[in-house]
Amino acid sequence: MSHQSFFASVERNFDKAAQHTGLPQGLLEQIKVCNAVYQIKFPVKIGDEYHVIEAYRVQHSHHRLPTKGGIRYALSVNQDEVMALAALMTYKCAIVDVPFGGAKGGVKINPRAYSEFELEKITRRYTTELIRKNFIGPGIDVPAPDYGTGAREMAWIVDTYQTFKHGDIDSAGCVTGKPVSQNGIRGRAEATGRGVFYGLREVCSFKEDMAKVGLEPGIEGKTMVIQGLGNVGYHTARISINEGGVKLIGVAEYEGAIVKEDGIDIEALMTHRRETGSILDFPGAKNLPKREDALELECDILVPAALENQIHAGNASRIKAKIIGEAANGPVTADAEDTLLKKGIIIVPDMYINAGGVTVSYFEWLKNLSHMRFGRMEKRFNANTYENLVSTVERLTGKVIGPKERSVLTRGADEIDLVNSGLEETMIEAYRQIRDVYISYDKITDLRTAAFVSALNKISSDYMALGIFP
């Protein structure tokens, strides 16, 4: 297995793409480096003891403000990892045309080792440290959930921020991924998984691309294996099955992996795991010897939705999937990617395919700054307009539409409808931009490089517009 650092792997991919851009070396160097790295160590009283907590916040690029990126709680957190994730956020935001610079945060703890009260103390103290150094704010740096955090932690963060910034009318926009009741937005919880589905569906829609890997166009009926049943993996599976007609045949989680060739009922599997504490011994499925074995199953689409570096030089040669959708950040190492590309596998890069979370976070931020939920102004107007249209058609044709059909035809869009519509448009348009680069640059042979080039072209335009580079 390669021991190359995560940040070095990101830089290697950057360098691979940079040579295709023709941009000045100084500009490329400015885009590449992390602009600000904040390393924190602070004490928190846990029971009768004081624990010194190690934490980070990295702002990778200030070409646009605020910067944006999640906060993860994990023992694996280190500066290299947070820098890499911040860099990926910069490129991710550019790819999907979200006007933020990239950032990331990390707290080096195992959240399972602390009570809810203790986690709240750690979160609030971490937020206080960010406020002290001006590393958080709706126009400065806007965190979000990541591995080990969720809406609960975001609610603690915004409450702490508002305590210090009393009277700031835009204070709710200091963080996204909040509970809906705390100025959050509907659809944020499943946004990343839904974005993965929209992205994979778009990838599978091009007949000539699918022919290269021996598949028919369209996502319906394709077999899928998912590693990780957290928020992203679960929603990717659920939406791919229910809305895309995908057959889920394999799942890997912390405790092991299973395979079921005739398809896994994701809701039944989640119920089984809640009741038994494990996905193993799921009725009708076969347990695999090792959890990593799921990655090597024969399938159309493999979705690694856990942590980074899961597909590496040691197992890349055994991967049999036709398409890999990087729902996690950095699940394929740079060394492994070379092997996979030689095998003709389509790798849909993380900084595109998992951008649903930051896209809907952007919508939440806009909602917070506008102080109004989406759909409030136009929903009833649209519903009344559609009702008048249906009534006119009935009058002119002498036909009567049934109540069920009438309800579908005349409803106005709720917030969730508008969020999903915006996310769908974003993922489709972003992939088409990446694919255009992939097709138009003769020497680009993979989607990751195309995605990087697409991002670099947009970021360089921002820097040039600022007058920093001629």
Low-confidence stretches: none
Estimate what percentage of residues fall within beta strands: 5-15%
**Tally of helical segments:** 16
CATH topology of the domain at 191-353: Rossmann fold
- Give the terminus-to-terminus CA distance: 43 Å
Instruction: Find the CATH superfamily of the domain at 191-353.
Output: NAD(P)-binding Rossmann-like Domain
**Strand sequence of the main sheet, in spatial order?**
9-8-7-6-10-11-12
Helix and strand arrangement:
Elements: H1 6-18, H2 25-32, E1 36-46, E2 49-59, E3 67-73, H3 79-95, E4 101-107, H4 116-132, E5 141-145, H5 151-164, H6 191-203, H7 207-212, E6 223-227, H8 231-244, E7 247-253, E8 256-259, H9 266-276, E9 286-287, E10 301-304, E11 323-325, H10 334-342, E12 346-348, H11 350-353, H12 356-370, H13 379-397, H14 403-410, H15 415-440, H16 447-465
Parallel strand pairs: 3-4, 3-5, 6-7, 6-10, 10-11, 11-12
Antiparallel strand pairs: 1-2, 2-4, 7-8, 8-9
Would you give an account of this structure?
The protein has helices at residues 6-18, 25-32, 79-95, 116-132, 151-164, 191-203, 207-212, 231-244, 266-276, 334-342, 350-353, 356-370, 379-397, 403-410, 415-440, 447-465; strands spanning 36-46, 49-59, 67-73, 101-107, 141-145, 223-227, 247-253, 256-259, 286-287, 301-304, 323-325, 346-348. It has 470 residues and is an alpha/beta fold. The model has no long low-confidence stretch (mean pLDDT 91). The longest helix has 26 residues, at 415-440. Among the domains are: 34-184, Leucine Dehydrogenase, chain A, domain 1 (Rossmann fold); 191-353, Rossmann fold (3-Layer(aba) Sandwich), CATH 3.40.50. A 7-stranded mixed β-sheet has the order 9-8-7-6-10-11-12, with helices on both faces. A 5-stranded mixed β-sheet has the order 1-2-4-3-5. β3 (67-73), α3 (79-95) and β4 (101-107) form a beta-alpha-beta unit. α3 crosses α16 and α12 packs across α15 (415-440). It contains 16 helices and 12 strands. Helix content is 45%, strand content 15%. The chain is globular.
